[in-house]
Amino acid sequence: MAVTGGILVLFLVAHMVGNLKIFLGAGDFNHYAEWLRTAGEPAVPHRTVLTLTEVVLTLAVLLHIWSATSLALRARAARPVKYESRKKSHARGYATHTMRYGGVIIALFIIWHLLDLTFYAVNPLGSSATPYDRVIADFAPDRWYITVWYVVAVLLVGLHLWHGAWSAFNSLGWRTKRNDGFLRGLAAVLAVVIAGGFVAVPIAVTFGWVG
């Protein structure tokens, strides 16, 4: 769970940095999108690095879901009787109690995101436009509901990441009584930075700051 989560966090950071290139203009953003497909050439064929990355990410997501399900079933089997009070549970806070449902929403968001900007099935401009133009069309002011959907999903990703990062620190044996507060703060900062970076793009496009 912690290892696959770490892989996904690294991807989120890299993806966020790439997305923020939209603030540098159409040329830089389109060049970045093209680089994703040509990375490694001519040493390896076109799109090889991107395809391998997609395979690793797919395996990480599937293993992450399998780990979450396995842990939930083991926890239920270990304590079939519910806690008399939520305060007695080691699971703490709103983030903990929404991890399961938030994970489902995040999964649906990933499917929509792939259909939108990878397969272009639900993008207004389809495959004929540039990556920059597709993003601008996606979050146009008249499509504010797409922006709302994106922002809500990303905030859930941030919530998931906040709890997940701290849990990973704990699972890997890094947490002690002395550094507990620091690690919780680090998890919160990581979640805020990543969620904020992703949310910045649709909001900027919708309000006309980019485009």
UniProtKB/TrEMBL annotation:
Q: Which SUPFAM superfamilies match?
A: Fumarate reductase respiratory complex transmembrane subunits
**Residue ranges crossing the lipid bilayer per the database entry:** 49-73, 94-115, 148-169, 181-210
Keyword hit for Heme: no
Asked if the keyword Plastid belongs to this entry, the reply reads no
Q: Which UniProt keywords apply?
A: Membrane, Transmembrane, Transmembrane helix
From which domain of life does this come?
Answer: Bacteria
List the Gene3D superfamilies hit by this protein, alphabetically. Answer: Fumarate reductase/succinate dehydrogenase, transmembrane subunit
Name the record gives this protein? Succinate dehydrogenase cytochrome b subunit
